[in-house]
Amino acid sequence: MALTQRTPRVVAARKLLRRAGRDRAGRFLVEGAQAVREALEWSGAGSGRVHELFVTDAAAARHPELVSAAQAAGARLSPVPEPVAESLSDTVTPQGLVAVCDLLDVPLATALSNGPELVAVCADIADPGNAGTVIRVADAAGAGAVLLAGETVDPHNGKAVRASTGSVFHLPIARDRDADAVLDACRAAGLTLLVADGRGELDLHDPAADAVLAGPVAWIFGGEAHGVPATVAERADHRVRVPIHGRAESLNLATAAAVCLYASVAARRRRSPSAAAVGEPSPTGP
């Protein structure tokens, strides 16, 4: 029997478009060929972390390898007509591929259990596109984890997942509405807390800053409009100034995150030239 928008499985999946539905079910939707591919690689054969793949006939014809990978991963394959696929999408141009996956986030202690030396903390970032981009940048810079503190948007939001271009599946992600708990966990893991601040006492490009930047650090980033919350910034070990050499008022969040995270990578290399980089992503990647 063909699935319709009233089929219980479709109705249940559609509830995952909202955060409350995702939190209740412990699952989220992954849409599009690239994101589904990353989800299936994250899931692995028979792991059960990808539960179902809704796919139109046209999408199945375009991506037969994803259909095969979903079956190998033990996911239920559910052919659907275009209107059903559209009802499960929050994009303007649905691709006809939607996977139902387990939530990605792990406890704070788990995210920090491997002793990461570079961590990105998103503090009260409300825009899902910004949060997803920070996750992508952190992944590219070789960060060991991304922590979402306070009222930061759900990383399982469809726009956040798309903005991450698959990076949500590459590194540990933890979230906690208690920002102090996130900062305490970072300190307990031996991380120095750094906040990017236009009036910070530490110049990002000052050679003297290398001693700080090269150590185990957690960079804290806030939303575009208001920056890092004052109560969070007050707990930082250093406020780091990113010099503005031209007339621009400031850098946007994604650019600032890239500059800061890569500054730590560069400082670590300068202090230990023989140390291998943690990952070598292509600067021209997707």
UniProtKB/TrEMBL annotation:
<dbReference type="Pfam" id="PF00588">
    <property type="entry name" value="SpoU_methylase"/>
</dbReference>
<feature type="domain" description="RNA 2-O ribose methyltransferase substrate binding">
    <location>
        <begin position="29"/>
        <end position="107"/>
    </location>
</feature>
<dbReference type="GO" id="GO:0008168">
    <property type="term" value="F:methyltransferase activity"/>
</dbReference>
<dbReference type="InterPro" id="IPR053888">
    <property type="entry name" value="MRM3-like_sub_bind"/>
</dbReference>
<keyword id="KW-0489">Methyltransferase</keyword>
<dbReference type="InterPro" id="IPR013123">
    <property type="entry name" value="SpoU_subst-bd"/>
</dbReference>
<comment type="similarity">
    <text>Belongs to the class IV-like SAM-binding methyltransferase superfamily. RNA methyltransferase TrmH family.</text>
</comment>
<protein>
    <submittedName>
        <fullName>RNA methyltransferase</fullName>
    </submittedName>
</protein>
<dbReference type="InterPro" id="IPR029028">
    <property type="entry name" value="Alpha/beta_knot_MTases"/>
</dbReference>
<dbReference type="InterPro" id="IPR001537">
    <property type="entry name" value="SpoU_MeTrfase"/>
</dbReference>
<dbReference type="InterPro" id="IPR029064">
    <property type="entry name" value="Ribosomal_eL30-like_sf"/>
</dbReference>
<dbReference type="InterPro" id="IPR051259">
    <property type="entry name" value="rRNA_Methyltransferase"/>
</dbReference>
<dbReference type="InterPro" id="IPR029026">
    <property type="entry name" value="tRNA_m1G_MTases_N"/>
</dbReference>
<keyword id="KW-0808">Transferase</keyword>
<dbReference type="Pfam" id="PF22435">
    <property type="entry name" value="MRM3-like_sub_bind"/>
</dbReference>
<dbReference type="GO" id="GO:0032259">
    <property type="term" value="P:methylation"/>
</dbReference>
